[in-house]
Amino acid sequence: RAPRASPPDGGWGWMIVAGCFLVTICTRAVTRCISIFFVEFQAYFGQDYARTAWIHSIVDCATMLCAPLGSLISNHVSCQVGIMLGGLLASTGLILSSFATSLEHLYLSLGVLTGLGFALCYSPAIAMVGKYFNRRKALAYGIAMSGSGIGTFILAPVVQLLIEQFSWRGALLILGGFVLNLCVCGALMRPIALKEDRKTAPEFLEQDYVPEAQKQDLRQMSICSPLIKAWSHECLCYCSWKEYDFLLMPGFMVLAVSVLFMAYGCSPLFVYLVPYALTVGVSHHQAAFLMSILGVIDIVGNITFGWLTDRRCLKKYRHFCYLFAVGMDGLCCLFLPVLQNFPLLVPFSFTFGYFDGAYVTLIPVVTADVVGTSSLSSALGVVYFLHAIPYLVSPPVAGWLVDTTGSYTASFLLCGFSMIFSSTLLCFARLAKKIKRTHLQSLTNDANTKQHIWTNGAIAYSVTGELDQKDVEFLAADTNSYSNR
């Protein structure tokens, strides 16, 4: 098919949104529900908080650590193949986990294998939504990412019921069959060709070492498809660099650092909310219901924030909406240690769930605004890769703090301050960028008042008073640049 000039903003794109919606249910919602198994694993294997928390940490870490691998397969093979393969691996990991005889067994099967399968599905599915939508991108992402909340709302009580009826082994076996639906989601991901994806490098085509036949082929197909043609070593190096050149963008660097602190703060809450609720006297069903509330309000945050940030009045301020949501989740974590009963924990689940859904929706939107649509798949792979180490470290660290101090206060305070720091860092970076842009505009306007170009090419300057040294240097540099044209 001929490449489209712009995303369709509809049509089959809504099927892509539906597929991504199911992917987020089968990946992120299932990962969140692993926290319901926490008490069961701890009681069955007789281990402390820190060792048991490694299971959830490894799942999250493997999902994010291998996200670039999912992007690589999606870019160079097929998004459909990557998601189907990921579904098979994740299902196999959950089924093998139902036969676990030790925590180490769960580390490998439920942690590494299932996490790898989720990684091959998650970032490619999200990137496909960005390929099909532009004008309504935030709304499309809001609907797609709401699968995490809806899945948590439905699966949390269902998983608790399955554990009571079939034990944790039977519950994992049933989840393994459920996750096979990722293969169906993969089949929906029809690829789309956009003109901006087929842009070639003019400077590369000018090189003498590229044969004319290869130049012609290069103009007809994507430059970064090494499976189509055996390009020269120079071409492959150029492709690899162009695919990840966004890594040196200052805006992406700041976003990446803020993501590290945000990921550290958000992960322990999903692991320890149910155990914390049980320690303050909440029943098992009420604790699972707290996760359900968090999940369903997560949906509201996904869709409403996605719709609001697509409005003309807020479209320019997506970064600030994102950092506001992250900061509010941090404040919620700071107040959690004083909430000691079920009626107080319910408002917490409402508030934290809403803003969690809000910033999760805006992560791909903000990333696309920073790097552009053509690099979105690779950039999302890197962004989710940056979640890996915080996701791996934060739950065991929080568990160690619980084992050491005998309470959850230190763990939740550390999470809250980490998320607030992430929000503050991004806020200061945006303000510094705005101040720098304003300063450059003022310099440009000042230069325009001093420079007048005559029709014969001469340059005259109208100056009131004497020139200082900076003005002399500016005029000299400007005159030299004009004479070199």
UniProtKB/TrEMBL annotation:
UniProt cross-references to InterPro entries, sorted A to Z: MFS, MFS_dom, MFS_trans_sf, Proton-linked_MCT
Catalytic activity: guanidinoacetate(in) = guanidinoacetate(out); creatine(in) = creatine(out)
Localization terms from the record: Basolateral cell membrane
PROSITE patterns in the cross-refs: MFS (PS50850)
Function: Functions as a transporter for creatine and as well for its precursor guanidinoacetate. Transport of creatine and GAA is independent of resting membrane potential and extracellular Na(+), Cl(-), or pH. Contributes to the process of creatine biosynthesis and distribution.
UniProt similarity note: Belongs to the major facilitator superfamily. Monocarboxylate porter (TC 2.A.1.13) family.
UniProt name for this protein: Monocarboxylate transporter 12
Annotated organism of origin: Casuarius casuarius (Southern cassowary)
Taxon lineage: Eukaryota, Metazoa, Chordata, Craniata, Vertebrata
Gene name of the encoded protein: Slc16a12
